[in-house]
Amino acid sequence: MTICFTALTTNLSNTGGNRTIIRSVDELRKQGNDVSVVARKDRYTWDEHKTVLKSIPKSDVNIAVSVLDIKNTINSKSKRKFIWMRGVENWFWPEDKILRRLDKFINQGGRILVNSSWLKTYLIRKNLESTLCYSGLDINTIHSPRTEGRVRIGCLYHKTHKTKGWHLFRRLADILGYDNYEYAGFGVGRPKECDWLTRYHNDPSPEKKDALFKSCNIWFSPTFWEGFHSVPAEANLMGCLVVCSNSESNGLSDYCNSDTSMVYSTLTEAADMCRNPEYNRVERMQYRLMNKIGTRKENMRKFVKEISR
Fold first, then answer.
1. CB contact at 8 A, 254 and 182
2. What is the CATH number of the domain that holds 166?
3. Are 250 and 175 members of one domain?
């Protein structure tokens, strides 16, 4: 099968969403598919990958990687056309504009794929049909929780996406204090103030990111309006206990619940959870990730079956 992932408008850079595309493309190629990625600019450096194309080739399937790329996919000559939604993307457009564009896409023969169950539920409420397709996890090794020493708490930062909740992380640190706890993070850009952090990496390599995960006891995830939020899952596989918000749109509902993580409704509750961490939940989440989500290899086989219909 010939498959084209279209990112002509959004382009490629070092983000979790683009890493999903690049690694999924690599796995699809290993499974014998002819896969191309189209983008005018390619700034993605986390993984080695084939040179992207500048224009859309003829293919059996064309997949928009963002709502901004729907028009390019519709105008392609592919037989089957999809958008793989990995978030609501309200940092690009207002919600009502996104929904109108998706509705128009369906009326033009396109189909919506989503990478998380809450996104599917969200679209159902908006009278839009979609199909759940996980991208899967890159599972090499699984680590036990680190319970010795001072408790270190990690969080994800993004210089423009306030939906990552970094400001809530700073407030959590102020509640817990700095005598008995350490704080770390990584992300896109660098926070204005970093003196309260023990460690911070701007745009780290996969190796540095994994090392940061392994140095943390707890991964704090206050996010909202995510798709499938893979960062806490990766942190968990490296041994972190996940403390997450109870927001429906936090992107964690596929693997986080009161049995596998510590779910808070207020920052005061989150602070109490960090003071009394239940590390036995780490292995429960790892088991859930392995058995419900699975590997990228497994999920890309399912992905091909879905886009073949």
1. no
2. 3.40.50.2000
3. yes
